[in-house]
Amino acid sequence: GLRAPARGHDDDGALVADLFTSCLTTPIHMALRFSCTSPLSSVSADMIDKIPGHLSDRRTPLGELNWIFTAITDTIAWNSLPRSLFQKLFRQDLLLASLFRNFLLAERIGRFYGVRPVSLPRLPRTHHHPMWDAWDLAAEAWLAQLPDMLHAHQQQQQAMAAQGADGVQGGGGGVDGGTSFAQASS
What we know:
The protein is mostly helical. The chain contains 8 helices and no strands. The protein is elongated, with a radius of gyration of 23 Å.
């Protein structure tokens, strides 16, 4: 759950609840949105939502970001928690570990907005851990590349769609297509 705003920044409890829920369910998107709040950033929330790839595939941009986030939050937890609690929360169950990793993010972002998420068991404060600087650096590097990456991805998708359309229009209707089929079946 969440505690009431410490500095009175939130007049709308729904905003805080949505922030907390989003940190738990879509941590990479929330962490990147938090990183690009600078007025100098040319990256929009819509662009972040279009990062190509899958969380579970490290060979994709989204998967690589997830891998970095996991390594950093696990390091923060390892450095901040008693070993037995770390083992219980971060190594015994994959879903529980994911939720507690994401909780660390919720604590960090919540602090910015003057709220403090609470958990059972109670975790030490980690919003100021120096490993967050490593995340910020990685996020900034990815965000700087994101406009070009999305443009290249869009061009690749358009090229694939054009090839698919050409294949549908010209596939199998000509003499070569019929000949190949006849040879293969005889």
